[in-house]
Design brief:
This protein has 260 residues and is an alpha/beta fold. The chain is built from six helices and 15 strands. The chain has two domains: 55 residues, Vcp-like ATPase, Chain A, domain 2, CATH 3.10.330.20; 186 residues, Rossmann fold (3-Layer(aba) Sandwich). Helix content is 23%, strand content 30%.
């Protein structure tokens, strides 16, 4: 049975709208529903239900990477949402041992998910042009314990990637079409190109560039997620939803010259 260790992040779940990500330390954690002495949770099993000083019941859960990213990352840039991360991982097949270059690290959210899935033998090369973004991303990523699988670089990828024979290149940039030639050079044959763009004009230019460079299996998708309130006799969609965040363009590298 897995138990809480001192220094671990833990998720204190109150209800579907309120949960708190904290570290198991000697401090007292205060909420509007009373306080909890966090040191009393050390050594206790995950899934335990505990009561606050005011009698409110919290469940002690082990946080997922999604919890860490959404609740602990300092976001000085817009992040790629989990719904889009899921499609990126599914369409690319990124997994253990993959070598992936990401351009446009931002706050490091996608970097964290990529690193989580390429473990234990893979590597994520994160490129960013702004030093302040890179510094913040490094602090965020240090909270995940995944830095052994990440290499962050201050460089404009329009000048080219340092790596070759990559399994995938993932772009979150204002002008991804300008990077298509560099992505082609860096990818191995059959490697996967991914671009995230908020506007359809960016998508058009990117797809045109991909076709000029001989990429195949070019596909553009958008993911919309709608949550539901489920209660007998009252089940309905939630009033607020995460709608459009961006378009995802996927493509595969093919050889420019036909071999016979």
């Amino acid at each position: 049975m897995e138990t809480v260790r001192k220094g671990d992040y833990i998720l204190l779940y109150l209800d579907s709208k309120r949960s708190f990500l904290v570290k198991a330390t000697d401090r007292v954690f205060h909420t509007h529903r009373g306080y909890l002495r966090l040191k009393e949770l050390i050594g206790k099993p995950y899934g335990l239900r505990v009561k606050s000083s005011l009698g409110a019941e919290f469940t002690v859960l082990k946080p997922t990477l999604k919890d860490l990213v959404l609740k602990r990352f300092r976001r000085i840039t817009q992040i790629i949402y989990p719904k889009d991360v899921g499609l990126i991982l599914t369409y690319t097949g990124i997994g253990p041992g993959f070598r992936v270059a990401e351009a446009g690290v931002g706050s490091g959210a996608l970097t964290a998910f990529l690193a989580y899935y390429v473990r234990p033998d893979g590597r994520v090369y994160g490129y960013e042009v702004r030093q302040d973004f890179l510094k913040n991303a490094r602090r965020n990523l240090a909270k995940t314990g995944l830095m052994d699988f990440i290499e962050l670089k201050l460089k404009d990828v329009r000048e080219g990637f340092d790596e070759s024979e990559l399994d995938a290149v993932v772009l979150d940039l204002p002008t991804p079409w300008e990077v298509v030639p560099r992505a082609y050079e860096a990818l191995k044959n059959s490697g996967v190109f991914v671009s995230f763009s908020p506007t359809i004009n960016q998508v058009e230019k990117t797809v045109e560039a991909l076709r000029r460079w001989g990429f195949v299996s070019v596909e553009t998708v958008e993911c919309l997620v709608r949550n539901f309130k489920v209660k007998t006799g009252e089940t309905r969609p939630e009033t607020v939803m995460i709608g459009h965040t961006g378009y995802l363009v996927f493509a595969r590298k093919s050889m420019l010259e036909l071999e016979v």
